[in-house]
Specification:
The chain is an alpha+beta fold. The chain has helices spanning 2-13, 41-47, 75-81, 86-94, 105-112, and strands at residues 18-22, 28-30, 33-34, 55-59, 66-70, 98-101. A 4-stranded mixed beta sheet has the order 1-4-5-6, with helices on one face. Strands 2-3 form a two-stranded antiparallel ribbon. β2 and β3 (33-34) form a beta hairpin. The longest helix has 12 residues, at 2-13. The protein starts with a helix and ends in a 5-residue tail after the last helix. The mean pLDDT is 92.
């Protein structure tokens, strides 16, 4: 279902395009207590990924069609925050062609942009 939705978006993008979609972050209610997490509806519709601080890249320029940027696994923190799939789970459970830690997105942006003339 999610793969079909992503394919429809890629078809609408046309050739040679790159689109970046951002998921919802955690929102802090008080000092160290977040509100219950709710993923951005559009992001969930395309990815099915229901964890905070993620980004998805869809491409029709010859690069990997679907890349997820996600929070890394941290078993100690997951005791308090709940399970996070990390990059391995993004590949295994969410159909990503590539997966990276969320903090790597900014360093990858120049590779996603077309060369300037």
């Amino acid at each position: 279902m999610f793969a079909e939705r992503r394919q429809k978006v890629r078809e609408a993008m046309g050739p040679g395009a790159v689109a970046i979609f951002f998921g919802a972050p955690l929102v802090i209610r008080s000092h160290d207590t977040p509100y219950p997490f709710r993923q951005d509806s559009d992001f969930w519709y395309l990815t099915g990924f229901d964890h905070p601080s993620a980004a998805a890249v869809l491409r029709t320029d010859g690069g990997p069609p679907y890349t997820l940027y996600v929070e890394p696994r941290d078993p100690a923190a997951e005791t308090w925050t709940g399970y996070r799939p990390g990059t391995e789970g993004a590949l295994r459970d969410y159909g990503a062609d590539e997966a990276f830690q969320e903090d790597q997105l900014l360093e990858h942006v120049p590779e996603l942009l077309p060369p300037s003339h």
